[in-house]
Amino acid sequence: MKNLFTLFFLASLLTQCATSNAGIATSNIPITDQQYTVIGPIEKSDYWFTFDIAVIGFPLTKPPMDQLVKACLQESGADALINIQYWNDKSIIFFVTLNRIGLRAEAIKFQNDPKKK
User: Fold this and answer.
1) What DSSP line would sit under 4-26, residue for residue?
2) Which domain holds residue 38?
3) Which residues of the chain are modeled with pLDDT < 70?
4) Neighbour count for residue 34 (Cβ, 10 Å)
5) Is the Cα dihedral 73, 77, 79, 85 positive or negative?
6) How many CB atoms neighbour CB 91 within 10 A?
7) Does 45 reside within a domain?
8) What digits encode the pLDDT tens for the residues 33-51?
9) Does 10 map to a domain?
10) What is the CATH number of the domain that holds 88?
11) The CA-based dihedral angle spanning residues 71, 75, 78, 80, taken in that order and rounded to the nearest 10 degrees
12) How would you class 45 by CB atoms within 10 Å of its CB: exposed for 0-12, middle for 13-18, buried for 19 or more?
């Protein structure tokens, strides 16, 4: 019985996996020829789960990227984000994957309302 428990414990340690990736973007909307003021840096992260069977995965919720950008804009009172750095990592334990996404950027406010052009 003790050997069975040890085998199960070792198998649970060996079936875990973690991966990550990252990227950059200049801004979340086009800013061509527009004057702006940098409000300051902002950083947020969020997560979601997926159910994975071998190479097939089923998201249990949608990835929260849009909500993350909207939350950054709303929290800072900004019109846009520039110098965006984002990362994504995954931790897999048996059939469930915890996906995390993080966003770091500078919040800006336009000096003239770009919608009036």
Assistant:
1) HHHHHHHHHHHT-EEEEEEEEEE
2) 18-116
3) 1, 5, 7-19, 113-117
4) 16
5) negative
6) 15
7) yes
8) 889 999 999 999 999 998 9
9) no
10) 3.30.110
11) -20
12) middle
CA distances from 87 to 13, 18, 22, 24 (A): 25, 14, 4, 9
Contact in structure between 69 and 81 (CB atoms under 8 Å):
yes
Question: Within 15-91, where are the H helices?
Answer: 65-76
- Using the structure block, give the residue that is written with the tokens 């249990």: 60
Q: How many other CB atoms are found less than 10 A from the CB of residue 16? A: 10
Tell me if 6 is assigned to some domain.
no
Q: Is residue 100 part of a domain?
A: yes
State whether residue 58 is helix, strand or coil.
Answer: strand
Q: How many residues in the chain?
A: 117
- Structural domains in the chain (count): 1
Give residue for tokens 């840096």: 41
Q: Give the H or E element holding residue 49.
A: strand 36-53
What is the distance in angstroms between the CA of the first residue and the CA of the last residue of the chain? 75
DSSP reduced 3-state for 3: helix
Place of tokens 């950008």: 69
